[in-house]
Amino acid sequence: MNVLIIINDASYGTEKAFNAMRLAMTLQKEHKDVKINVFLFADAVTCAIPNQQTSDGYYNLERMLKGVIKKGGEIKACGACLDARGLKDIKLIESINRSTMSQLTQWIYDAEKVLTF
Predict the structure, then answer these.
(1) pLDDT at residue 58, as a whole number
(2) Residues 60, 18, 58, CA angle at the centre, nearest 5°?
(3) Is 116 helix (H, G, I), strand (E, B) or coil?
């Protein structure tokens, strides 16, 4: 099964990105045949910024994103959204790349399920 998860909210502040990544990780763990694609849109592009410091006992999205990638998931960040937030030249977490609306539309077309957070 091909699942696309679109995240719109900032990395921290609400738990939408956290819950989206929890779902992605659980799908990968419980269903070995699932293909996970995650598209970071709007303020969610901040999830792709490496080395964000979180308090002990608090979730860390970088670890969660890397875990999904390690199990074959693919994660892209909206390039226009990065640019709009002054993040054009920032280095993203390894294996997360800038992307486009064309990529997102292709992922939507290919997906059997599209989930938004």
Answers:
(1) 72
(2) 40
(3) strand
